[in-house]
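Hi U.,

Before I forget, here's the chain from the pilot set. I'm dumping it here mostly so it's searchable later in email.
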Amino acid sequence: MTALTRSPIDNSVQGCQKLELAKRFLDEHCPLDCGSHMQTTHYVVYYNHLMAFFADGTHCGLKQPCQFVALCGHKDDPTAILLKKADGLHVELTFNRCGNTGKSDVAHIDDIQFETALSALDNQHVQPQLKRLWVSFLTGVQHALCNTSSVKQYTAKDGSDYQLTAY
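Structure:
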């Protein structure tokens, strides 16, 4: 079988392996108070805290609750959750029950993206300009946030607007 004749099953297996790697990344950089993101079946926001639920009915929050900063969608069934790592850069979990990866993941996570900071020289300035680059564990580089037309919008845990724009 060649790359051109690879079946969708191979792609979903590869997607699951990449998602497993992404969840290990979450366990390292945004650990739960107990348990692992690998066993999480559902995430909800409860009184401004991210809660992870497991198949046996138990639940817990993040080891460092301040790492949860924002969400998209409803608190009971978010479409995205935004976390902030210790270095100040973000991690986004997106959920989609019908998505390529989300339909086979128990927590319906469709992708996990992490933010990296890039510095680039601006032609008009000597100082480097910082830009955000979002990298998907499943598909690779997504896009760079380098101007106001590239804005990710969320609802902060306190209900206010939370936007990620250029530095």
